Fold Pyruvate kinase.
Amino acid sequence: MHVTHLLLEEPIRMASILEPSKSSFFPAMTKIVGTLGPKSRSVEVISGCLKAGMSVARFDFSWGDIDYHQETLENLKTAVKSTKKLCAVMLDTVGPELQVVNKSEHSISLEANAVVVLTPDQDQEATSKLLPINYGGLSKAVKKGDTIFIGQYLFTGSETTSVWLEVDEVKEKDVVCVIKNSATLAGSLFTLHVSQIHIDLPTLTDKDKEVISTWGVRNNIDFLSLSYTRHAEDVRHAREYLSSLGDLNQTQIFAKIENIEGLTHFDEILQEADGIILSRGNLGIDLPPEKVFLFQKAAVYKCNMAGKPAVVTRVVDSMTDNLRPTRAEATDVANAVLDGSDSILLGAETLRGLYPVETISIVGKICAEAEKVFNQDLYFKKTVKYVGEPMTHLESIASSAVRAAIKVKASVIIVFTSTGRAARLIAKYRPTMPVLSVVIPRLKTNQLKWSFTGAFEARQSLIVRGLFPMLADPRHPAESTSATNETVLKVALDHGKASGVIKSHDRVVVCQKVGDASVVKIIELED
């Protein structure tokens, strides 16, 4: 491979590897989504997660009831106030997820080469010979020789906690399987995944709709993670449903690609969705192992070119029980950053892991190191070439702002925005410096009361690489006189100085609207 094609900046000095990592106000440009659960729901632990670098909190409704998650969210609000760290909320739907139901919660030992029967009769007791499941159509969907995987809270890939079955025969509604590896299943629910088989269930289930219309509406969720997205129609249907729920029409939909079906329709799904979550746990089972990295690189590239956030999952599984990631996992996190990922999503590592705060901290440090050697120059040229000419007005302003910032070695780009679109476009070109997105609230009314927009837009930038939002004073509109703009700019600069991002004599690139014109200007700070 020719050197110019490397995604690393050349050359990397070996001495820099021996230098200790320096901490900064922004731990990394790459964002971290943390799943909150039993080990990470106290105010103290959530505060630690926020300080360590978590900017989006994910609530996984495949377990736990509404009251449980509400209690966790109230703790999150308390932690946000005490740490003064903004955090967005993501609701993760269950979708057509197949599960083994273990009411007794006794651990189940399965021995290699033995036979186990999967039955839709959920009244049965789960044993090493019989596993009740929550789906009556499995016997119609599978045939002899098909592969079925079962594991607790997705699959760790570890042979001791997940089991691989091969369908031997179908007996009416039951499916008889041969166990391919010995494993012990523990807990009340285990996810069941049938490799490369279409499951005839809706993507947005009635249970999901109930959760969204109650918990989601009550808490004004910022993101909906749409599990098992298989078609663009799934996203359209979810958006129509959100639009019927008042303020949730602003909620962004992240399509979770979990199987071959979603992969097949990836381009259409990307067009409809606001972002993509690459669910490597399930995909790693649907795809041969040697193809997983190819999917990641291709999917992240497409998201980057579309200017939509790409979120990668399942990176440091071993940290669920250990204080350090494996060498392969540490490299995997760095490669996700070099591929162009916007965010890293932590699931079991923070949900039930023993070291949620340490996990977020270590992942953040790896991301920060990888960002230092990210080949921004090559990436910029690639993106400009992909966008082509003539560029749209906004795209041209965004790329010019980034080019100017890099040429003058600016310490930060400040962008004024009311919808967040301009800031996301600037972030699309992956500047090497942070982008401070100053969200200008807009006044709106429903004839009964006044309210301001802006909080949604600010929180939704917390999943985009390199974007750091701050809410401006609503008395200073974004598109008014230069005097009010200067006032807001001073507040933004003071914020940058207080956080240590901006110092005396630094250059700052500012992107704002003055009247009908979009302006990019470079300012040099005095003492």
About this structure: The chain is about 35% helix and 25% strand.
